[in-house]
């Protein structure tokens, strides 16, 4: 490897002066549509593979239903949201769920050390709601403009066609916010035993909107009724030697014998605001909301009870998008969520076609009525109007009309200087990773250290030293054990200066601030007890931590 550096440009040849941040209204404000470098980058990334998914190619799926309790915690769900799918108790909403690994191709093993996709399509009475998440409750990066870079670094080398550890750690070493996710993924939590014993999470922050147009920040979680089970590297290797699709087989067989897997859907709620009392930004998806402050509040149950009749027609052509929301659930200014909202649906139109929503697995429960026409593979017109000649709105002679509102819109006040911003609250890049290390059981820490040491032995010295420096700042024992396991000079690593342009651990980067809003109140249901989570079964049981 050489250290030759050329100036990064767009595909139009324009120099890129900031490849770290979306353009937004203030540090925490919404992203803007004229993010041309990001749009060019992400839309090209969406088209890098055909017809296989760029990420989440290896997957399996099942049909089932979601049944709301009609409550959020102990309160009526309508107190927090007007979304019927969450407020109507006892109604069974049809769902299709697709589980997946992220980096590997369609035939890659399901024992891979990798986050797992947990994507749900709810076919509600108000249209589709897609909740596209992962098993772990955080992610590697917090700004969507970095997503193509991250996946390129984690995918096989474009020259050798091998997944090289040095590429992964080269990227991670320059993005301290990834340390928290690395600590999870390189521990046994990075290899779920199967899909039935695995959590699900929205990862991103959304908003719940009530009948008055008031909103709360919200994260969604799915807790398996069977408990949580993960694998060590040794256990995974033993399974992979005899079955590369063990998790698919496990899910299919369980449903066929009517041992239907079930999850409890929970939410965490927080007042909508920047919460200066926290040492992390609630919109930063590399951070977890502490459950002692923001408890998991039960909302309903998710049950899978039917296997697909055809894997290609249903599982492979199922298409999800984070922008597919229903009334009562809204976007936050989470920059990963805003970037994914463009990318996911754009990917589906490219991969499956512009009429992918006409496929039965993707079609909403209620027949759609739009003025959109034609496109590849269109096999019916979803007009639903009184006059088929009118494919526009409004009209005096028939055609479709706007729906009445179910409640006032949530009006978020936005003010700020347009620019590219990185969060100034970065101390938790190290704090939460260290906390996670200390809460692991001894055998989990042993597996984590062994996995990291094995990887880092294959990396150049400058990457080894920087990673030990990061781990040592997360927790001195963490860094010392990785250094010892990989044969890295700990004192030499500790002597490194902070990363250029980033604050030293425990310090917030100083930068321009333009808002002086009043802090919001804390979680709206502080003190409401969350239902305890189960873990159990054979093998390694994961305690809720």
From TrEMBL:
It holds the Pfam family Catalase-rel. Residues 9-401 form the Catalase core domain. One of its GO terms (biological process) is response to hydrogen peroxide. GO terms for molecular function: catalase activity; heme binding; metal ion binding. Heme binds at residue 344. GO terms for cellular component: cytoplasm. Belongs to the catalase family. This is Catalase. It comes from Steroidobacter agaridevorans. The lineage of its organism: Bacteria, Pseudomonadati, Pseudomonadota, Gammaproteobacteria, Steroidobacterales.
């Amino acid at each position: 490897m050489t250290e030759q550096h050329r100036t990064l440009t767009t595909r139009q040849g324009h120099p890129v002066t900031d490849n770290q941040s979306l353009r937004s209204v203030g540090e925490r404000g919404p992203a803007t549509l004229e993010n041309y470098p990001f749009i060019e980058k992400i839309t090209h990334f969406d088209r890098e593979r055909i017809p296989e998914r760029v990420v989440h190619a290896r997957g399996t799926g099942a049909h089932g239903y979601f049944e709301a309790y009609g409550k959020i915690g102990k309160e009526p769900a309508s107190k927090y949201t007007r979304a019927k799918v969450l407020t109507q108790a006892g109604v069974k909403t049809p769902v299709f769920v697709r589980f997946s690994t992220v980096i590997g191709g369609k035939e890659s093993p399901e024992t891979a050390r990798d986050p797992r996709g947990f994507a749900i399509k709810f076919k509600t009475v108000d249209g589709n709601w897609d909740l596209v998440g992962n098993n772990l409750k955080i992610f590697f990066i917090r700004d969507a403009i970095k997503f193509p870079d991250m996946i390129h670094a984690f995918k096989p080398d474009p020259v050798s066609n091998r997944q090289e550890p040095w590429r992964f750690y080269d990227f991670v070493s320059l993005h301290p916010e990834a340390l928290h996710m690395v600590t999870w993924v390189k521990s046994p939590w990075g290899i779920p035993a199967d899909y039935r014993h695995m959590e699900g999470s929205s990862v991103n922050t959304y908003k719940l909107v009530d009948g008055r147009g008031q909103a709360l920040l919200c994260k969604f979680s799915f807790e398996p009724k069977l408990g949580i089970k993960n694998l060590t590297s040794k256990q995974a290797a033993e399974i992979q030697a005899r079955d590369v699709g063990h998790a698919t087989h496990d899910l299919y067989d369980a449903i066929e014998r009517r041992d239907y897997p079930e999850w409890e859907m929970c939410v965490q709620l927080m007042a909508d605001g920047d919460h200066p009392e926290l040492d992390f930004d609630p919109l930063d998806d590399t951070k977890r909301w502490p459950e002692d402050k923001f408890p998991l509040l039960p909302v309903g149950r998710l049950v899978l009870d039917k296997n697909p009749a055809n894997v290609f027609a249903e599982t492979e052509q199922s298409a999800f998008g984070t922008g597919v929301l229903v009334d009562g659930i809204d976007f936050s200014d989470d920059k990963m969520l805003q970037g994914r909202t463009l990318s996911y649906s754009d990917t589906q139109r490219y991969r499956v076609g512009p009429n992918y929503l006409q496929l039965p697995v993707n079609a909403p429960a209620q027949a759609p009525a739009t003025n959109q026409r034609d496109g590849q593979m269109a096999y019916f017109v979803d007009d639903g109007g009184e006059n088929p000649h009118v494919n526009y709105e409004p009209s005096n002679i028939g055609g479709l009309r706007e729906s009445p509102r179910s409640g006032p819109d949530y009006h978020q006040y936005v003010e700020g200087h347009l620019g590219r911003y990185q969060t100034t609250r970065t101390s938790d890049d190290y704090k939460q990773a260290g906390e996670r290390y200390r809460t692991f059981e001894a055998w989990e820490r042993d597996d984590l250290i062994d996995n990291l040491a094995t990887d880092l032995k294959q990396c150049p010295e400058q990457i080894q030293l920087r990673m030990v420096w990061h781990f040592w700042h997360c927790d001195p024992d963490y860094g010392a054990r990785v250094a010892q396991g990989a044969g890295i000079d700990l004192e030499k690593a500790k002597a490194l200066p902070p990363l250029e342009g980033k604050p030293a651990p425990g310090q917030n980067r100083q930068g321009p601030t333009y808002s002086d809003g009043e802090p919001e109140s804390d979680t709206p249901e502080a003190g409401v007890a969350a239902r305890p989570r189960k873990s159990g079964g054979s093998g390694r049981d994961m305690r809720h931590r």
